Structure formats: structure tokens, C-alpha cells
Protein: Biotin carboxyl carrier protein of acetyl-CoA carboxylase
Organism: Rhodalgimonas zhirmunskyi
Amino acid sequence: MTKKSETLDADVAFIQALAELLNANDLTELNVKRDYGEHDSLNVRVSRKQEIVTHVSHAAPAPAPAAAPAPAAAPIAAAEASDDPASHPGAVTSPMVGTAYTSPEPGAPAFVTVGSQVTEGDTVLIVEAMKTMNHIPAPHSGTVKRIFIGDGEAVEFGTLLMIIE
């Protein structure tokens, strides 16, 4: 095993230990800097997604008069608004902690925009983690319906990035 892979394995174990510490102590975030030498260090930010609890009333609405039926799109839009987007079958989530980039380089056009057609395997964005650019592929073919992150935004494991239908 090389020195570099031993260091990587130790870093992964260190990050996993931080995640366990975060959960065991009911913390929301940890920031740690580990120095290996004068020009070599590891900066780690481990955080937990805050759950926002909302209460939805399920009381039945008063029946509408027969002469004024509700438009067909209204119930669908209301159902989509109340559903958690992360549970959508087309949800694309971050596989790692890092910084998300929507284009291959500053000033370049975005990989995808809302309405873009993608094919399974197409790069939809990049997540930079530990100075490595990780291309995030489309899990399936379809149309990009929503994008939840901005260029250069920090993301965590499981952060909702976009929806592809």
C-alpha cells in the first residue's frame, strides 16, 4: 500500500469518525483542520441537514358549487407543492460533501438548465471534494424539471440537486 493511499484511508476513517461524533452528540456541524505538513492539510466540514417540520392540515375543504368546477391543474399543483421533492422518483442527490458547480469552468455555459433534455450518464454538474472534480451523471434520461442548488454552493451527502423526469 502506498503512502498516499494510506493517508487517504486514514482521512476517510477520520471523516467517518467525525460523522459518528456528530450523530452521537446531536450536533449540527463540525469544522476540523488537520495539518500534515507545511503545505499539506485537510479541511473537513461535516454537517447534518436540518429538518424543517411543517404541519399540514388535512381538513376537508368545503364542497365547491357544482356550477364552478376547480381547474384540473390546481389539485396537481397543490399536491406537488406539499410533497417532499427529495422523495420524487426523479430526484438527483449529492453522493458526497463538497462544492457543486453547474458548469465545467467559470464563465462557461451550465451543463444543464431547467428544460434541458439529458441522456442517462450525461454530466449534469460537478461536485468538488478534496480538490477532486467529480462529475455527477444523470441517473436516467429525461427532462430537467427543477434545479435546487446554485453554482459554487456547498452541498452535503444527500443534498437534493435537481429533479429529472
Confidence is low (pLDDT under 50) at residues 51-60, 67-82.
